[in-house]
Amino acid sequence: MEFPSKLIEDAVNEVSKLPGIGKKTALRLVLHLVKESEHKTAALTDALNRMRTQIRFCKTCYNISDTEECSICQSHRRDKSIICVVEETNDVMAIENTAQYNGVYHVLGGVISPMNGVGPADLKIDALVDRLMRAQSQVKEIVLALSPTMEGDTTAFYLNKRLKDFSIKVTSIARGVPVGGELEYTDEITLGRSISSRVPFQV
Question: Which residues of the chain register pLDDT less than 50?
Fold first, then answer.
């Protein structure tokens, strides 16, 4: 790809390092920024710089936060007896968008993946165990909301093993056929789990 300027080329190379953005999309974004006023471009770079230098992680659940403790952990309206264990912050956002959960969270920071060199010690698993020990039986349920992948299942199995000494109910989110989906296009594992985990019909 030929560039009219070394400055444009450098900017495109950096933007294209972002996930899901190729060189053509990066070029389109960079050229858009060139057309924008210097004030708008400065506002963008300032926001990115402040995000990178000032971002924090909640001391309790490890969710991304602007303060020492995130707004969810600080809220008196949340049910602290239920902890939903997720992989990353975007999973917290996805669950929050459903407006169906009122407990708190614990962000692991990934899943166990030996192929990628990620073991239990690389995740916030020990922090979860310490959190439960400090809670002194206040926590009644742990919800494992991990991706339905081999790595996610491995992490869930390991967590269940680590939590067996606590008098806490360990559950996992349901897996099944998506709303609007057709059975013939659903993979066998998902369909099999949906049948084995069937629930009473509700009108």
Answer: none
Q: What per-residue confidence (pLDDT) applies to 95?
A: 94
Please state, in angstroms and rounded to a whole number, the distance separating the CA atoms of residues 158 and 83.
17
Cα–Cα dist 78/71, whole Å? 10
Token pair 């349920």 is found at: 141
Predicted pLDDT at 124:
97
The two tokens of residue 184 are 């013939």
Burial class from Cβ neighbours inside 10 Å (0-12, 13-18, 19+) for residue 178 reads exposed
* Token pair for 123: 């995740």
pTM of structure:
0.82
Sign of the CA dihedral 185, 188, 189, 191? positive
**Single-letter amino acid code for the residue at 37:** S
pLDDT in tens, 151-193: 999 999 999 999 998 989 999 988 777 777 776 777 887 788 7
Instruction: Calculate the dihedral angle through the C-alpha atoms of 7, 11, 16, 22, rounding to the nearest 10 degrees.
Output: -50
Say if residues 100 and 113 touch (Cβ distance below 8 Å): no
Tell me if residue 130 falls in helix, strand or coil.
helix
Question: Phi/psi of residue 31, each to 5°?
Answer: -65, -35
Q: Which domains does the chain have, with CATH numbers?
A: 6-54 (1.10.8.420), 64-172 (3.40.1360.10)
Contact of 11 with 5, CB cutoff 8 Å: no
Contact 58, 65 (CB under 8 A): yes
